[in-house]
Amino acid sequence: MILLSVxxxxxxxxxxxxxxLPQAQSGAKQNYPAVxxxxxxxxxxxxxxxxxMLDAYGVAQTPPDLYPVTHTPRSLLGVSGGIKLIAxxxxxxxxxxxxxxxxxxxxxxxxxLLGAEPAGVSLVSNDTTGDTQxxxxxxxxxxxxxxxxxxxxxxxxxxxxxxLQLDSRFIPVVELPSRPSIDRDSAAKRVVGRTFTYSxxxxxxxxxxxxxxxxxxxxxxxxxxxxxxxxTEVHLAWEIVAGKQLSWTVYVDAMTGEEARVTQNFxx
Length: 268
Hints:
Distance between the termini: 80 Å
Number of domains: 2
Number of strands: 14
Mean pLDDT: 89
Shape: globular
Order of helices and strands: HEHEEEHHEEEEHEEEEEE
Structural class: alpha+beta
Strand content: 25-35%
Helix content: 25-40%
């Protein structure tokens, strides 16, 4: 009887441990994808910083145009005449450098509003069109590129130093897995057999079938933010181009293997 009781007790302990194991695994899965939740505090802080910025440059107060969840500026809607970044006109021939430095100082000063960490921001392009310069910055503090125009800030400045357009898509840094569960080759194979639909110039529905790996190019591993109703999910994903003459960018989740997003790379 004693032996039977001990055996029964060990069996019970084993079953308890067995029951707890799936729960622990389930809990680990719940940590992915990372989620940036909407926050009233974040919005209040952004609105406060927006008012401080307008006051600092002597601009009449106007409500901010903010992205949901991150609450970074989407535009300068309502700001008449722009924001004067340079008080004194730069010396002839030094305008480009002066404007670049002025924008950089602006990013540093209003980092809380823009969601920018100056050490983790890189200038990736500077284009001149007529009397304006367009500065494009990329967020570089994730260790991996962000997909599409996520993690991007665009500032358009006039020759005399007025900030005319501002669009900040920077996102907070969240913890992601250090390596993918789905390797590059496996991700590519998941796109084979996929059929894409699109409309031709006449509006008729057409189909494109990905028959083999020769039509698939795995470009890189990226950070992929996906906007939800009241949150932003942050995924680790493989960026894959499917098709040749007509192509689509497919993002395959590098942890689950699921198709996370598809973008058509041509216009119809």
